[in-house]
Amino acid sequence: METLAALAHGFTVALTPYNLMWGIIGVTVGTAIGVLPGLGPALTIALLLPLTYQVDATAVFILFAGIYYGAMYGGSTTSILLNTPGESATIVTALEGNKMARRGRGAAALATAAIGSFVAGTIGTLGLTFLAPIVVDVALRFGPAEYFALMVLAFVTVSAVLGSSALRGLASLFFGIWLGQIGIDLQTGQARFHFGMLELLDGINVIVVAVGLFAVGETLYLAAHRRHTAGSVLKVEGSLWMTKEDWRRSIGPWFRGAGIGFPIGALPAGGAEIPTFLSYWLEKRLSRKPEEFGHGAIEGVAGPEAANNASAAGVLVPMLTLGLPTSATAAIMLSAFQGYGINPGPQLLSSQPDLVWGLIASLYIGNILLLVLNLPLVGLWVRILRIPEPLLYAGILVFATIGTYGISQSAVDLVLLYVIGGIGYLMRLFDFPTAPVIIGMILGPLAEQAMRQALTISQGDWTVFLTRPLSASILALALLLVLAPQIWRLTRRN
Amino acid sequence: MIEGVTRRWPQLAVALGVLAIGVVVLVQTQQIATTLYARVGPKVFPTATGIALVAIGAFLAVQTLIGWWRTDVRAEHGQVDWPRFAILLIGLAVNLALIGPVGFVVASSLMFILVARAFGSRSLLRDAVTAVLLALTAFLLFELALGVRIGTGVVDVAIGGAVRQLLAIGG
């Protein structure tokens, strides 16, 4: 009951014309950048971080949440019509959705993706609404030792468990953790890794790193390696009203996808890849026409799209209740909290009720807006897809310049942007994941702080992490997650 | 195996690069002062990070040498298109060189045109018009609407001044 009252209050916050305006801007921008290949929510939110100097926190987070949800909707349009998934989580959508579009069923694919996203996004937001207060109740009993253990677990899952190589994921993670240490150590006031440069004493701005990795690195890669001209955008053929059979075949996958996506997203593991693949696999198993899979089965679009959106809602659970980001986008949102001097964690729900519940209410509203934006107006977004590639990437680099040079007017930041862009290019080439860099950079300093607090309380006794049962079991789980796949692989090899 | 290793030299270089970053971290950690009393000093986390990076780099090198990390970069990503890559890098360099003295509008427009070239565009006029329009719009939006100064070069200041005067006359 308390939750419902809080949510009702959230709606009064989110429905003020001012906040509603930011919500509408958010979902529109989000859909646009989701549609455009090469732009993602993490990059966009990073570029918009300077807004935190001008606009109040509630409005900014409503904007960011709209972008975050909108990008999920927009991404599916591109996968279906262009067959170039914008992000790894929509690979599966491209698999079946593009085949459907080729067979003249593009409209039905877009419809099941959009309605499925709406259904699952709403279920996921409901999950967030009712799970968040419960997690907070548990989390309030955590001490610094438990927090440190939880952060270690998140580090492990985002770098070593997901992705193709645990070692390369960990390399990315520790590189990010190191970037986070540059600057003044907040607890002792000592300068670290400034290399004699005054500019580095303030630390490296996360905008520079995110824009370097996602915009500059990606542009370098595409200019150097892409031969083929842009794939052709398929026309939206067929009726946007799904047939009775389409509905019958979609409803099950929507709900199952939501059921898979939300819990996996909410675990401190995060990631939308695993739930989409799981959902695809499950729908193929359950389908009465498994032979259609690979040739445009509607279940293969409905399920994974639902899983994708539900997991996006799930990721917000650890982020809003524990201050634990498990995706690059969530990590950048966390740095926006820090920009306002707000400490995300279990106190957030009680200390910033307007912000948190306004944000959650705006997600419900955003889902409805997005359904309207993405179904009747889909033709508009298709037009965005026709922007010539040279102009698109040239424009991205101009915005990258604004985002970095514009805030500091320092050529050092621009050099840093290009250096990190070069590193991002190499990471792309050698298959190092980039998200762990951002997560390590934001979460690393928080982990260090938690570790030091725990050790201060224990009077310097390092066994504190192992003698507290909860902390010990979380750390054991983290260790298991790193070692088990390696051992399994070793035994299979021999 | 030797032949395999010579083909995998790029991976080996990357592995050693990770290791080198770890060494730099460890060396630079020694520069951090620890005069103040603290239960856990500012060196503990950096030291752990450095050790981790050295270990990961070493493991990656071993994986490459024994053939566990065998992604063939060239087969997977194709040859580097050096002319295009070079044009893009020139674009970035022009931006970096001009943005301070001349200003954002000119620097970004030139970069835009060069980047579009690097992506295979052949219509110089279209690129130039788009570049100037985009740079001007962004500049005016930030300068006038948001009050964020994104350019302080000669040309930026002149444009900003001219537009302000126009607005003053109009208002």
Provide keyphrases for this structure.
heterodimer, A: 494 residues, mainly alpha, two-stranded antiparallel ribbon, 2 strands, 73% helix, B: 171 residues, 8 helices, 74% helix, 0% strand, flat
Describe this structure in words.
- The complex is a heterodimer of chains A (494) and B (171).
- Helix content of chain A is 73%, strand content 1%.
- With 494 residues, chain A is mainly α.
- In chain A, a hairpin with a 6-residue loop joins strand 1 and strand 2.
- In chain A, helix 4 runs parallel beside helix 15.
- Chain A is globular, with a radius of gyration of 22 Å.
- Chain A starts with a helix and ends with a helix.
- Chain B has 171 residues and is mainly alpha-helical.
- In chain B, helix 5 packs antiparallel against helix 6 and helix 6 packs antiparallel against helix 7.
How is the quaternary structure best described? heterodimer
Number of strands of chain A: 2
Largest sheet of chain A: 2 strands, antiparallel
Q: Largest sheet of chain B, if any?
A: none
Strand-residue fraction of chain B? under 5%
Radius of gyration of chain B: 25 Å
User: What is the rounded distance between the termini of chain B?
Assistant: 77 Å
Please specify the SSE layout and strand pairing:
The complex is a heterodimer of chains A (494) and B (171).
Chain A: H1 2-14, H2 17-35, H3 41-47, H4 57-82, H5 91-102, H6 106-139, H7 144-161, H8 166-181, E1 183-184, E2 191-192, H9 206-225, H10 244-266, H11 273-286, H12 299-321, H13 328-339, H14 348-351, H15 353-374, H16 378-384, H17 389-408, H18 411-429, H19 435-457, H20 464-467, H21 469-493
Antiparallel strand pairs in A: 1-2
Helix pairs in contact in A: 1-15, 2-4, 2-15, 3-4, 3-9, 3-13, 4-5, 4-6, 4-12, 4-15, 5-6, 5-12, 6-10, 6-12, 6-15, 7-8, 7-19, 7-21, 8-19, 9-17, 9-18, 10-11, 10-12, 11-12, 13-19, 17-18
Chain B: H1 2-7, H2 9-29, H3 44-65, H4 73-77, H5 82-98, H6 104-118, H7 124-146, H8 154-170
